[in-house]
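Allow me, if you will, to draw on your knowledge of protein folds for a short while. I have a record of one protein: its chain in single-letter code and its fold written as discrete structure tokens. The full record is reproduced below for your convenience:
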Amino acid sequence: MSASRDLSSLPPDELVRRCVQAEERRKRAESRILELERLLMKYVAQDRSSAVRRELLQGQPLLDLAAGLTPPAPSEASDGGEDEDGSGEDDEEPPSGRSSRRKSRGGRRKLPAHLPREVQDYTLDPMRDLPDYDPAHGYQVIDHDTCEELVLPRPEPKVIVHRRPVVLYTTLDGETRLATVGGISKVFPKCAASPSVLARIAVDRLHNHLTLYRIERSFAELGCPLARSTLCQWMVWLGELLRPLARAQEETIRAGPVRFADDTVVRVLAPGVCDTVRVWVLLGDGQSGREIVFKHTPSRTADAAREILGAHTGYVQVDACGVYDGLFADGVRIEVGCWSHVFRKFEEVALVDARARPMLRLIGKLYAVEDAADEAKLTPKARWVLRLLASRPLLARIGAWVARQRDAEPLESSFKKALNYVVNQWSALKRFLEDGRLRLDNNLSEAEFHVVGVGRRNWLFFGSREGLKSALVLYGLIRSCVAHGIDPYVYLVDVIRRVAGTDTPARELIPSRWKQLPPLPIDKPDRSPAQLAGTG
């Protein structure tokens, strides 16, 4: 009986199951190909073979090069299609541009070892617990069976009463005076909130994306009701208190070699309506590490872009929006293009036009070079050398392919528009070859708006312009903490205490430098379940 007859006799559920299995096998094969390409690029980065480098400089495809280094495996006959080099690869699925990682096996994960343990011993009553026990022979405990249970104690707020002695005394001149001994370093005058309370509200609001009414309810459940207007006022004050840190962050970004920028939309409550405001993220690596700053403008215009980026010089990586064109006209700032945008445009076209698929494969190979550099932990200079050897030939192939396809496409189709996008942005797209510190895409800044998007879905709008300004200051500090692996709550508690009670310069308190400071003594209170929800 033939295979087709065997399949035709199968029930629909079995056919679906076999289709799923075949699709999984295909995906595993593609993942294996990407893994081999990544390993090959790692081999090149370690400078083990000058012949490999010569082949890459000539633009030979990675898979062909790998076949030249190892005994070729038998391959099936080509179906006659042509890819960008006429090698018949059009039937392959486009890679995602990132190597797939093997998923960890399932199973119960052990509880973290750093958590404190409280051992609870169980008493043994042999007559009750041991069936058919004979007291004449006694018993012996030979081992203990242990299991662990995670317990989250409910945090209980407490009030610290500062009792300062009020003294009536007589001076050496015989004058009677009244004095209060001891000073209280309050964050705000006549404000009952401690640094821990302010930090908790800020983290719950902007890191855990809770709405103010939920924060208000959580305090009420703890037996300490706070008005929502009070919470709002405290956050406005806190943003103003920490604004010098945001200015220090931007100075650090300005001093760095590269900065990344992007923008999104939020709404701000106004009388009778909600105004639409553009929020910008500015990200860069200074000498001490990465800093992230959020700013806002009324709209997205060329003047707004100059207001955000006009004080910066050097490389600026943004998308290809026309509002940025004026920034690069004077040559003070150098535009760096985004290959992720190119990939998305051709990915959309590939859904209806298979001619776009070779471009996706070539972009995927550009990202394979970056993956190899990341895995080898190359320095910026070594990454630059690798790009000249591996990425520059790929760019030459992309440029030639785009030119051929553009000349052969007379219509103003979506495919032609994607090709025109590459041609118009070509100088910026190949800029990453100039410096190993540059990136292929602007995904770093785009990813920062994920937290704004999640929060925006919950709280819908900001209550005032002052609230927006303060929230953007706190957003930048919290997101910079996440970038450095710092607990935002611990950071804010410490920084609020230092700003309110010491004269530490603001530039020393930004997240990239904060770890270098000597610790202040701090009695850290129990954290709420919302604060224990992880790092977003």
Notes: The radius of gyration is 31 Å. DSSP finds 19 helices and seven strands in the chain. The beta strands are 166-170, 176-180, 258-270, 273-285, 290-297, 314-317, 333-336. The longest helix spans residues 12-45.
